[in-house]
Write a structure and sequence with these properties.
The structure is a single chain. With 363 residues, the chain is mainly alpha-helical. It has 17 helices and five strands. It has two domains: 219 residues, no CATH class; 121 residues, Arc Repressor Mutant, subunit A (Orthogonal Bundle).
């Protein structure tokens, strides 16, 4: 359980209480729901306590299951979870985020008279997803708008396998303030307009054509079963450099030593130009990563195998011995034979090279 303590790590007990308002008005015991979500009872309504990101996910799911209502009891007319499953099925087969968004909006509009989503075309590179919610008396509409935006953001980020590049968030409510200083709108990583005329998410047009990487209810259920952290953008723990490197290693194992960025970008469900941009933000370049990986494997072959230098060059896709030697000198600063004779007696380096070679040897 996550009760009082490091309160600055998440939304406070007042937000927890606000999220449970619909359930309370429908006669449910908030403490029982919190217990199912693994949240300490003293968090409820306590501005000095907070819950972490996975606890927030568990709380929302516990409320939804207790009420059998996607909308947490905030609408006069709820939406059963079975309908939510049908809505997911309606767009999981879509080819792109833009198509899935439009299908989802049409389905949502038909599901409840209290939810009125629509798309507003913007000039330039953006597209605005306006959400119109009619909540019942006695609940905090601003908290509901926030949690729905969190859900929308993470659902579609999960669908495309990376965080959406939101251009802006607009909310009709004022900027929320917590005693612990946690900014619950900070998780969107984009500018936020408060006291705006509409509640809306603005998407980058470049994201609209990104292909979906998930297409089944099982994957959706597995995602929630993993207790994702809604305070952290999807895949934040893995950088674009790491993801690019993984794909290149897979391609190198298959013998594709000079994979173009178009092939790697397609594997990562993004565009070459976008991939270059994202790598540049991390201080990396596609060519540098590709060159480094090939050089690491060349070094491993030199120390962990008895293959002649010429044979190693052929293993790594070089058709001419001289080409391999020239490239290796640019990687390591010395000729392959010099590198081998200098380091082959270093047991630690040989052990590391053996492990790397076993892991990344071309099939």
């Amino acid at each position: 359980m996550f009760g009082e303590g490091k309160a600055a790590e998440g939304v406070d007990g007042l937000v927890v209480q606000g999220l449970l308002q619909g359930a309370v008005l429908k006669g449910h015991d908030p403490q029982a729901i919190m217990q199912k979500a693994g949240i300490a009872p003293d968090v409820y309504g306590n501005p000095h306590a907070a819950i972490d990101g996975p606890s927030l996910v568990r709380l929302v799911r516990a409320i939804q299951f207790a009420l059998d209502d996607v909308y947490l009891g905030f609408f006069a007319q709820g939406c059963r979870l079975a309908l939510e499953t049908e809505r997911l099925l309606s767009f999981l087969s879509c080819s792109s985020f833009g198509e899935a968004l439009r299908v989802s909006i049409r389905f949502t509009d038909a599901m409840s008279i209290d939810a009125g989503p629509r798309i507003s075309e913007e000039h330039g590179t953006g597209l605005q997803h306006i959400c119109k919610y009619t909540t019942i008396p006695g609940v905090d509409r601003d908290i509901f708008v926030w949690i729905r935006f969190v859900w929308i953001y993470h659902l579609f980020s999960w669908l495309i396998g990376r965080p959406l590049a939101l251009r802006e968030i607009s909310v009709r409510g004022p900027r929320p303030v917590q005693l612990n200083g946690f900014d619950r709108f900070g998780l969107f990583h984009c500018p936020v307009k408060y006291d705006a005329p509409v509640d809306a998410l603005s998407y980058d047009r470049n994201d609209l054509t990104v292909r979906l990487v998930h297409n089944s209810i099982k994957e959706y259920d597995d995602y929630y079963a993993s207790e994702p952290d809604w305070y952290v953008p999807l895949g934040q723990s893995q950088s674009w450099r790491e993801r690019t490197q993984q794909v290149l290693i897979e391609l190198q194992k298959a013998g594709m030593w000079s994979a173009p960025i178009e092939v790697v970008a397609a594997r990562l469900r993004t565009r070459p130009r976008r991939l270059r941009h994202d790598l540049a933000l991390e201080g990396e370049s596609f060519q540098d990563i590709k060159t480094r990986l090939r050089g690491e494997l060349a070094s491993a072959y030199l120390l962990a195998s008895d293959l002649p230098v010429t044979a190693i060059g052929f293993e790594l896709g070089f058709s001419e011995p001289g080409s391999f030697s020239r490239h290796f000198i640019s990687w390591a600063g010395v000729a392959p034979s010099v590198y081998r004779s200098t380091h082959v007696s270093d047991a630690a380096m040989v052990a590391a090279a053996t492990a790397l070679l076993n892991d990344r040897r071309a099939s």
